[in-house]
Amino acid sequence: MENRGLVIVHTGDGKGKTTAALGMAIRAWGNHLRVLILQFIKGSWKYGELESIKALASINDQIEIRQGGLGFSQRGSGAEEEHRCAAAELLQTAMDELRSDAWDMIILDEFNYAYSFGFISLDELEQLLSVRPEKTHLIFTGRNAAQELIDRADLVTEMRLIKHPFQQGIKAQKGIEF
Ligand code: ATP
Ligand code: MG
């Protein structure tokens, strides 16, 4: 069987982009692939899955999660420069880790958010894709995936909002939202 790394995108306005990436991480880890998760937005991975990853990581060191980004913010707010720096730092981490070839799957969670805010350029995206080892899967999540990313991807899924409990005023549920 040919092992070929895929460029994967989870986008759209419906729920499930990050959790689908987690599903892939679990599937990959179970296949003895080494999985690195980089969070472009702090808090995008919730307590529940952090505990699960911690449990997997205690079994072996083939899964790791690193927070690099900042919390949500509005463009133009005073914190913009900080967000830009946090995104640049995490991007550098992603490049270094890809170059080191230490992972079979790297998840760039909420990358699309950082990209759509202009914190990451097309040049940087291209560099990221070009340093990717042939067998490494790279997963990008977040709403509003850029067309240039979609064009370069092998697998793109759009989660489309049909209904969300928040619309009925139902609060976040344990195991579903956190
Ligand atoms: P999840 O982490 O549950 O897979 P996601 O990655 O698809 O969600 P994000 O865009 O990262 O969604 O948004 C994160 C949070 O916003 C989640 O808690 C999610 O439930 C909530 N959310 C996602 N889509 C919607 C929506 N259409 N309406 C309201 N809240 C939403
Ligand atoms: Mg998400």
TrEMBL record:
<dbReference type="InterPro" id="IPR027417">
    <property type="entry name" value="P-loop_NTPase"/>
</dbReference>
<dbReference type="InterPro" id="IPR003724">
    <property type="entry name" value="CblAdoTrfase_CobA"/>
</dbReference>
<dbReference type="GO" id="GO:0009236">
    <property type="term" value="P:cobalamin biosynthetic process"/>
</dbReference>
<protein>
    <submittedName>
        <fullName>Cob(I)yrinic acid a,c-diamide adenosyltransferase</fullName>
    </submittedName>
</protein>
<dbReference type="GO" id="GO:0008817">
    <property type="term" value="F:corrinoid adenosyltransferase activity"/>
</dbReference>
<dbReference type="Pfam" id="PF02572">
    <property type="entry name" value="CobA_CobO_BtuR"/>
</dbReference>
<dbReference type="GO" id="GO:0005524">
    <property type="term" value="F:ATP binding"/>
</dbReference>
<keyword id="KW-0808">Transferase</keyword>
